Amino acid sequence: MGTSDELVALSGGEQAALIRERRLSPVELVAACLDRIERWDGHLKAWITVDGARALAAARQAESEIMAGRYRGPLHGLPYGVKDQMHAVGFPTTLGTRVLDPQETIVPGNAAVIDRLDAAGAILLGKQNLHEFGKGGTLDFPFGQPRNPWNPAYSASSSSTGSGIAPAARMCTFSLGEDTGGSIRGPAALNGVAGLRPTYGRVSRHGAVMSAYTSDTIGPLARSVGDLAHVLSAIAGPDERDPLCSMRPTEDFAATLERSVRGRRLAVVREIAWGNGTADEVKATFATALDVLRDLGAQIEEVSLPLALYAVPLQLLSADADVAAWFLGKYLRERYHRFDVGTRTRLAASALVPATAYNRAMRARVLVRRQVLEALEGVDALVSPTMIRPTKPIDQEQETVETSDDAVKRLMERRIGVYPFSLANVPAVSVPMGFCRAGLPLAIQFAGCPFGEASLLNIAFAYERAAGWWRQGAALDETLASWAA
User: pLDDT for 213-240, tens place per residue?
Assistant: First the structure.
């Protein structure tokens, strides 16, 4: 059924249809992904641990089940990876750090999401690279510098980095990442795939290292919105082991994907889309994306979120303090010098946030959340660019700032597109919307009401299919050969 590169270029839905029809073997698909990992991951560094033998054995079992008529559904036989902060028996949980001793990376059981994907018949290939402890700011990666498959000299975004690179490079059908302040949507946007931050509490966090307890959310990254819907259907739902998990039952999020979006009301967030910090080429590409939505029959209006700017410092003050509190007693005091300098600087500063400042930040978060929820009243989604500037070369990510005003400006530019919706804990999905002049991906973001993922995915799916950018993939043979030279 085609060459291995043709097979991995298909969406998960297309692969699933061929597997269901017994025209594609899960063994063949897993082998094709493992081949790409072998060929390209030495350059891209998307993975920390891969167990090919285990994955092929699981693929053979899936093939036997399907041939015997025991097809489990649209994820059966599809290969995936997870950000290495989710426990999976047989794999170390390294958290992308040198801080842990080897015995501390051994895990007692699977994360809830791993068990649910196992039950759905998906095949775990391994654990994916990330910023240290999943929190961003890493300068020296213990398992190699992650690189963008569209141009390895450029950043692949932060935190769930490998989880964005791997599906973009067709090394797996989908990934699971974790989003505190944009760590699913950022890697999805900059690597040219789709990524969903579900509503806070929609997906169990049991068995994952989730240190920013007020914001951390597990969600999928994949090459198509339809794939996100199928993965979310598998991993969402109540779990009594996670006290922060909603008891709301799961849904079939793919059931309404193809519903018409004619008449749907979409509100552009003025401060993100048209703000002074938003690059002109992002504005132009976003305007074209809005025309696609208008052609689909959506009604486009604008809304103002004056407090959106404040979401950035408020999220950093509160979530970073949560993380620092988690690490302070365990590792930060005793193993300070094992941390990457970028991580320890961020954590040490966050550990000094006074309780009074933390309390005020948490109270102010309520105001920002209320403004986001009020903006969603009467509309189906808020729309904006996911990232307001194109990705940068890796060697330019460590910037020198001369003044505090300059530092604030750079901070806002990196985060204002994603932080307001993290702070409000509403679902948000990032979808490719084209490319910048340098040939790197740009993305559009749709944010919706709490537990409104089905409606949100429907809108994102309609845009994705009409725009067509999701079909484009990085030409790794040419890209990596040129970069290596």
Answer: 889 999 999 999 999 999 999 999 999 9
